[in-house]
Amino acid sequence: SAELLVSRAVIIKSATTGAAVLDGGGSVRVFNVNPASATEYVHSQQNAKSPVRCRLASDPCFVSLSRSSVELIGLKIANGVCGGGCGVLAEQGTVAITNCEIYGHTTTGYGAGLQVGGSSVKVVATSTVFRDNTGGSYGGSVYQEGDTSLEMIDCSFSSSSATGRAGGWYVHAC
């Protein structure tokens, strides 16, 4: 399995909120936004009556975002396993996460559901649910570090844990 690597501006939107499930299968990160890669994935689903599960093959983490304007809308991002940011790894660029559910991720590092790091990244999460994520160190659901911008609007956190601190959202100011 492999992560979804986003290298340029893209909108990934489910035609019906919650109908598209991007699933790391317990072995990879789901989203990685990274400008150094040329891989792009766009999922659109018309007339969805049942969830679509997307499984990728190759790396131990699923989605990571860097130096891009990326919008994730109405998705279920589930079951990633990696070293940090197993649902979404955002290291550069602008990332909007809207009406998503980020759940079931496990990391040995920081921020199982969402990791926000790097020198110039801005993430805005709106009406997003973070649940059932397990962090190995800090931030079971969300880990934020350094000179980053993370805005949470009408989001919820439940049933997440970390072996270090903050099962929900951990901010490491450098």
Uncertain runs with pLDDT below 50, 5 residues or more? 35-63
Task: Report the radius of gyration as a whole number of Å.
Answer: 14 Å
What's the SSE pattern? EEEEEEEEEEEEEEEEEEEE
Q: Outline, from the CA principal axes?
A: globular
The number of distinct β-strands equals 20
In whole angstroms, how far apart are the ends? 34 Å
* Mean pLDDT over all positions: 78
Strand content: over 45%
- How is the main sheet built? 10 strands, parallel
Helix/sheet category: mainly beta
SSE inventory with pairings:
Layout: E1 4-6, E2 10-13, E3 20-23, E4 29-33, E5 52-54, E6 62-65, E7 68-73, E8 75-78, E9 81-84, E10 88-98, E11 101-103, E12 106-110, E13 114-126, E14 129-131, E15 134-135, E16 142-145, E17 148-153, E18 156-158, E19 161-162, E20 169-172
Parallel strand pairs: 1-4, 1-6, 2-7, 3-5, 3-8, 4-10, 6-10, 7-10, 8-11, 9-12, 10-13, 11-14, 13-16, 13-17, 14-18, 15-19, 16-20
